[in-house]
């Protein structure tokens, strides 16, 4: 088959106009632009105009590109290579392993591409089919051990129809380049299969059977698991101003959530924050296994200093890998930071294409793209009764913390949980700085619906009374209202806030969360018969400190029950607070 070719006719930063001189091209097709020094830059067809005019978005720096440079069209869409060896790796948005690129040159050279998976590593393959068996796209041929998982080897998902196993290797060690099976199509043609295959990143993988997310995905963060949960297969967004704690929140969830696989997509994140992930994650210990956290993590690193076109590639790359591990029957969580910078890249490209702008110059179709991304999350059920899930949590960085801007609004309409970050809370050094009133979730909590409503009512009352205190002072509110306010503040301090740097308080298990709620509820429901506001404040200060001491006590320690008893005694014997302490 003869390759399609063309030549450059215009260059507008990452947007390159090409005159296709032979063959046909398609939207989403990968093309290579060859510079005068022989460097080949990878790009993608994003628009086709009448008269053989094609527009490419280039994933690399376009300096020194000139009119007349030759272009070669691959005939294939941008794809990700799927197979064993992805977990524990760090790649760019084009799936180039960054640590392998560093071996070539400390400064990443443009036009340098490395095979995404190691072709020399031998994997211990165990077949699960025999010659004569009928298979189709997505059928399991066998498995290999990858980290702590059994990695299923599939018939490529792109293969439609029914095939017959003609030959399959015996159990043993093989590389990704070895043929492990030969299948025969209905026409009698033999097709060799390897352990890895490719899938277009912008094409969602089809579900066997899609199920509605309905089970809470524990994150270890109390305010989320209790009030604003995300479900296995659910979606969440966290808009907030710069410096409000989005990245810390994501890193905490990555370490302590009950997901099997965590994928971090740094789609335009600042370089300093991305480097922190690269340095810290290999050294962190996974609380679930005691091994390195990287054993169940895949990182796509595309910082804000890289070409804008690569941001789009990185977020789709991460999502496709997530869908693949969902097919493995695992619970996958994607953390995308930040979808705003991805949207800003789309805005830049749209402007260069001279498209009619939408609100704030974002493309008119921005909400469609955002919705399509989050729609790839979900729970998938398999014919054998198993299931896997893909959850997506994306941060949003609206300029000036304005939640009314188009990207935030489009994201809110596409996600099931909204974790709004508050500048006021972050400035007060409260973590997580998630707005207690405006945040929402449609997913079930670890607590009951009645419990959630009970807590949210107290928080709303506390905010209302706080406003009155600011306007009128303590003398302007009744003792009853002041006690209600103090209970709300106690709830915030000991239940909703956490110390992310503390080994025990940094993450809370569902079992401990339930215990904590029971004590909080008892405190809230216990009448306080104290006459003056100074004594009321003193009473709740003692309760707060006793509760925090309990929070910092490991669940399996001897002091856990003792400190809980002391706390409950303070609640019951409020008239003798100081003696009991």
Describe this structure in words.
Strand 23 and strand 24 form a beta hairpin. This protein is 32% helix and 24% strand. The strands form five sheets. Strands 8, 18, 19, 20, 21, 22, 23, 24, 25 and 26 form a ten-stranded mixed beta sheet that branches. It has a six-stranded antiparallel beta barrel with strand order 1-2-5-4-3-6. The N and C termini lie far apart (84 Å). The protein has four domains: 74 residues, Beta Barrel (Thrombin, subunit H), CATH 2.40.10.170; 256 residues, P-loop containing nucleotide triphosphate hydrolases (Rossmann fold, 3-Layer(aba) Sandwich), CATH 3.40.50.300; 73 residues, RNA polymerase II/Efflux pump adaptor protein, barrel-sandwich hybrid domain (OB fold (Dihydrolipoamide Acetyltransferase, E2P), Beta Barrel), CATH 2.40.50; 132 residues, Bovine Mitochondrial F1-atpase, Atp Synthase Beta Chain, Chain D, domain 3 (Bovine Mitochondrial F1-ATPase, ATP Synthase Beta Chain, Chain D, domain3), CATH 1.10.1140. The C terminus is likely disordered. It contains 15 helices and 26 strands.
